[in-house]
Amino acid sequence: MTRTSFNRGWRVRPKVSPFAQLQAGAGNATSVTLPHDAVAALPRNADAPSGGRTGYFPGGTFEYLKDFEVPDRWRGKRVTLEFQGVYRDAMVYVNGTFAAQRPSGYSPFDVPLDPFLRYGESNTIRVDARTHDDSRWYSGAGIYRDVTLRVTDLAHLGEVRIATPDIDADRAVVEVATRVVNESVETRTLRVRTEIRCPDGEVITRDSAPITLRAGGSGVVRQRLYVPNPALWSVDSPALHTARTVLENSYELLDEETTPFGIRRLQLDPITGLRINGESVKLRGACIHHDNGPLGAATIARAEERRVELLKQAGFNALRSSHNPLSPAMLDACDRLGMLVMDETFDMWAEGKSSFDYSLSFPEWWERDVESLVRKDFNHPSVIFYSIGNEIFETGDALGSEWGRALAEKIRTLDPTRFVTNGINPFVSVLSEVKEMRARSAEVQPDGEGGVNAMMNAGDFMARVSASPMVSEKTEASFSVLDVAGLNYGDGRYESDREQFPHRIIVGTETFPPRIAHNWRLVLDNAHVLGDFTWTGWDYLGEAGVGRLQYADVSPVFEAPYPWISARVGDLDITGLRRPISYYREIVFGLRTQPYLAVQRPEVYGREGFGMWAWSDSIASWSWDVPIGTPIAVEVYTVADEVELLLNGRSLGRATPGESKPFLAEFDLTYEPGELVAVGYRNGVEQGRTSLRSATGPTRLVAVADRTELHADDSDLSFITIELRDEQGNPAGAHDQLVHVTVEGAAVLQALGSARPDSEERFDAAQCTTFDGRALAIVRPRGAGEITVTVTAEGLEPVVLELESLEPDDEPVTAALLALR
């Protein structure tokens, strides 16, 4: 068997009908390397049909084209394309003939090519994809995940599934279920050989078994192997074993698969909560969308890995995919790095949320998409939950909840080794009743000054509804089909459900970021509450401004106007920089003892801000372009019981954390350049200190690459952080500047941008304006060789970085490869 990347050599252009092509031609196609987002390079405008929901990006229909040679030696082989995701409603044509369709934009699917191929000559594949008012957030469009070409013998391996049902300190039972497919015209007697390697690469056990299959038949070979003294997979020690499965006949190797897997034991009950390998685990969770900020929706493996790395460094140990299945690349990263996963199926069932969304396909396609999800996830130890939906309208309806039962039971037939949940928002589940309640409520007004009150009180209103007996009754059937009750913004039910439903286990599948101290106390105090997944861990494109602060002196609107592009919600911004709330959360989690200093922007001093997903408009800086004496508010996050603030050595007094919010001490002072120091005290003894210094003297341009040696393939990237600093290294972001980036040699500038949430600058341009003195350049290899990256800004000394793109070591040629030559 050969399995090779099929990401290079594509062209993309807007899709037009054959009739239009006759009149005006098809238009020029742009050469691209997958994964690719066709929407990210389109101009945004205030009149985009989906508005701020998709970041004011337009929709569109696109066609991807690729010519490829099909050697004559492939005759009699099975040739398959594996698509990991095409957004959306993909139509695949081979040599002009329809070959496959997939409505879901997030499901992997295979396309058998051999019925359409012309051997010994060039062939063409075309993939059409489209997006139009079909998402509540930025979806991107096109072939935005990897594509792989697989060539096998007619007798070949199908799916390999690995489970570890019986584990103790002395040994682990590893069950390997291998499907073997015989698509030849004769009966074949074959043998499956499996060997398991421990994390250091040593073979620790092996087994073989024969199978005889009739022409056109298939069967499963089950092997039960025993691993002595197993290294267990966990968040803190993500040990990965590898199974190599080989299919052979009496004289040659026909096929092989290498499957990483983890040995770990999951247990669940309302008394001890979630246990992994016998140890209780509380989920410090982050919801994440699928886009990669400046890269758009393109799921390049290194970008996925980097997100997992940075989220784990920020204190998270679990991710919830929102609201669609994670990419295989991100699952691989979670396995390697030790991050737990709640993988989610759908954002809607049969009741849609956008005019042309997946609900139009759900009744016909849901089973195939669930099968695809489980097939993708089964061997990933990081996946511990399947979520069957997010804020589904049908969850409050007795008949509609039948969908949930069908989904849950389908998953259990495919994979009984993991837990099933659903992100149920009790408020959404009774939305029709809520509309009547709002109409009668005196405190929630639809317009004018009442609109301000409505938005400021919406969280409390939602909490009261969620905790009501009406919700208990209407959602009981939907919760009853689950192993774990997922609650979106339902923390008001945590304690009452313990009494009302004593066997109900809860996880906060989506929660308001500012409430983390309150929610985490509920998690710690209630064994039946497994953890908290904040909205969100990483900022994302679309849902423009949902996480921004709004102010009582301005008429509020839920959706921010153009040119807003991002939600402005998340512990990390779209470039990967940790925002102040991330450090606050780390302190709440008990992972940080050092105080953290954040300063509110002077222009918002004294204004009353609100927003259910919003934190204060603050950054870690003491460099401000304001007159001395300007009033300014300072926040200190700390586990100390008292905080002293010093400015240029003078004490400005002490404050007690927790007066407005736990772990938070607040100070009002006037701005004066220099050094600001926060000192935490516990029982009168200094517990830790931190400081911010004003930038002085000339500003320097600083550029640092997260890696200087890259793989010369389509999966790697170098992320280059660009910052304005003074000679001492202090941030100098008071005056943002336009920076230019050029890339020469064996790479291209894949994207460039800042975290500015309302920028009109394009991510595919070679220049951008810093935001708070920071920007991010992303460089992608296009072959082996030297790479030179030059960063310039007017009046500043340029920075030149030297990178290198290296070819991977040649893989040994196996008998399977030789057999195909």
From TrEMBL:
<dbReference type="InterPro" id="IPR006103">
    <property type="entry name" value="Glyco_hydro_2_cat"/>
</dbReference>
<dbReference type="Pfam" id="PF02836">
    <property type="entry name" value="Glyco_hydro_2_C"/>
</dbReference>
<dbReference type="InterPro" id="IPR006101">
    <property type="entry name" value="Glyco_hydro_2"/>
</dbReference>
<dbReference type="InterPro" id="IPR051913">
    <property type="entry name" value="GH2_Domain-Containing"/>
</dbReference>
<feature type="domain" description="DUF4982">
    <location>
        <begin position="629"/>
        <end position="686"/>
    </location>
</feature>
<comment type="similarity">
    <text>Belongs to the glycosyl hydrolase 2 family.</text>
</comment>
<dbReference type="InterPro" id="IPR006102">
    <property type="entry name" value="Ig-like_GH2"/>
</dbReference>
<keyword id="KW-0326">Glycosidase</keyword>
<feature type="domain" description="Glycosyl hydrolases family 2 sugar binding">
    <location>
        <begin position="60"/>
        <end position="149"/>
    </location>
</feature>
<dbReference type="Pfam" id="PF16355">
    <property type="entry name" value="DUF4982"/>
</dbReference>
<dbReference type="InterPro" id="IPR032311">
    <property type="entry name" value="DUF4982"/>
</dbReference>
<feature type="domain" description="Glycoside hydrolase family 2">
    <location>
        <begin position="701"/>
        <end position="799"/>
    </location>
</feature>
<dbReference type="GO" id="GO:0004553">
    <property type="term" value="F:hydrolase activity, hydrolyzing O-glycosyl compounds"/>
</dbReference>
<dbReference type="Pfam" id="PF18565">
    <property type="entry name" value="Glyco_hydro2_C5"/>
</dbReference>
<dbReference type="Pfam" id="PF00703">
    <property type="entry name" value="Glyco_hydro_2"/>
</dbReference>
<feature type="domain" description="Glycoside hydrolase family 2 immunoglobulin-like beta-sandwich">
    <location>
        <begin position="163"/>
        <end position="264"/>
    </location>
</feature>
<dbReference type="InterPro" id="IPR008964">
    <property type="entry name" value="Invasin/intimin_cell_adhesion"/>
</dbReference>
<dbReference type="InterPro" id="IPR017853">
    <property type="entry name" value="GH"/>
</dbReference>
<dbReference type="InterPro" id="IPR036156">
    <property type="entry name" value="Beta-gal/glucu_dom_sf"/>
</dbReference>
<protein>
    <submittedName>
        <fullName>Beta-galactosidase</fullName>
    </submittedName>
</protein>
<dbReference type="InterPro" id="IPR008979">
    <property type="entry name" value="Galactose-bd-like_sf"/>
</dbReference>
<dbReference type="Pfam" id="PF02837">
    <property type="entry name" value="Glyco_hydro_2_N"/>
</dbReference>
<dbReference type="GO" id="GO:0005975">
    <property type="term" value="P:carbohydrate metabolic process"/>
</dbReference>
<feature type="domain" description="Glycoside hydrolase family 2 catalytic">
    <location>
        <begin position="274"/>
        <end position="422"/>
    </location>
</feature>
<dbReference type="InterPro" id="IPR040605">
    <property type="entry name" value="Glyco_hydro2_dom5"/>
</dbReference>
<dbReference type="InterPro" id="IPR006104">
    <property type="entry name" value="Glyco_hydro_2_N"/>
</dbReference>
<dbReference type="InterPro" id="IPR013783">
    <property type="entry name" value="Ig-like_fold"/>
</dbReference>
<keyword id="KW-0378">Hydrolase</keyword>
